[in-house]
């Protein structure tokens, strides 16, 4: 039986949350479960008087209450937040103000039958803060409705500390239905703090992924956070993890297939670094295989987007994946950058050539592992490869000083240079084609021109639009969409330079 998640009894509101007349799950300016800090960030770039409706948990209870958040100033604490309380079939707005005696008091609005009536009233009459309502801030396109997300209990793919993962369907219109992987937050009885922690983690991951658009990076469709359970919808990769494929079919993989899988992953990571994203958890378990046999970088739970002038950041990880960590990450003060991801890619190379086995698999003393990493004394793959240049790829990665380590542009060039000669017959023989639902039909992309990723890194993505309806935003959107179209045309021109036929052989591209 297909499950469409809805609030449990203690999550449903006795007021206006799901009443027929005021169904917030259909309201364009209902932003779901948001803290007041979240609301202030959303309202930051809008004029005074713009507003939204959100919900929040009562302290120590998994029960939602509603708030009207209104921008009242351009200062940091830019919004006032007014409680919405039901009164029979109507509702009222509670406004806290400070009177002339510096005492707090609550001003209660007249009762309203619906949100249109509320908006019309406060456009004509000032609120207690002296502000009139202007326009609503619509929720972004990537914020999904729970009714659009469906999954079956039998479609469970796995579980983590805070979420279950299911295979399901996303229905954005009456005619379009997509297969998706759905992260669903685990239910909690009375721990609203734990539930908000899960919601914050899912939302942070979603905000990192939402603008990404690359054939070797998992696609995010959106997040449903109108009420618990919170859900994140991502592209479904039927082939499962690269780790599972290596463990199952690694013994039969040829050199060409291993190199192809690594080129896919390197392309995805080069794109992410062009977006200033530090992944921090690159491993075969977090690389997925799509139906067309492409490797896609996934799981952005530990990822961080660097600021405009930021190249490194320091942060302690609670659950550090030690074997994949670079020397600068296993010091007293861990330091992360795009170069620490490059180091982890070296471990991924090892996994691919050792059929899913990780370095130091038999070493139980973590102290010995830490010493080896700090000294950059990592195990080699010489016994597993017939291509000497693959060892050169690793030697450019496993360098102790991050500033001397290759970046993913250089890694990709070295991988392409090491690629063995192959044709479409070799593609058909790839072991990943034995995975249910997987059929690789394309040779690896040997284009090393960095312009592909740079063009995409600066592309405008409408999914990140906060919903402002101003003419200025619309003009900007049209202008950037036009640029994106031009960039796409250039990319497609590059992609068609070398047609891939059954007799086409991979030719090594000279390094630059």
UniProtKB/TrEMBL annotation:
Q: What keywords does the record list, in alphabetical order?
A: ATP-binding, Kinase, Nucleotide-binding, SH2 domain, Transferase, Tyrosine-protein kinase
What GO molecular function terms would the record report? ATP binding; non-membrane spanning protein tyrosine kinase activity
Biased-composition ranges for Basic residues? 469-483
Write out the ranges of the annotated region (Disordered): 462-512
Which transformation does this protein catalyse, written as a reaction?
A: L-tyrosyl-[protein] + ATP = O-phospho-L-tyrosyl-[protein] + ADP + H(+)
Residue ranges of every copy of the SH2 domain listed in the record: 29-137
Q: Which residue range or ranges hold the Protein kinase domain?
A: 151-420
Q: Which InterPro entries match?
A: Kinase-like_dom_sf, Non-receptor_tyrosine_kinases, Prot_kinase_dom, Ser-Thr/Tyr_kinase_cat_dom, SH2, SH2_dom_sf, Tyr_kinase_AS, Tyr_kinase_cat_dom
Stated name of the protein: Tyrosine-protein kinase
EC class of the enzyme, as a word? transferase
Annotated EC: 2.7.10.2
Gene source species: Caenorhabditis angaria
Q: What does the record list as coiled-coil region(s)?
A: none
**SMART domains, sorted:** SH2, TyrKc
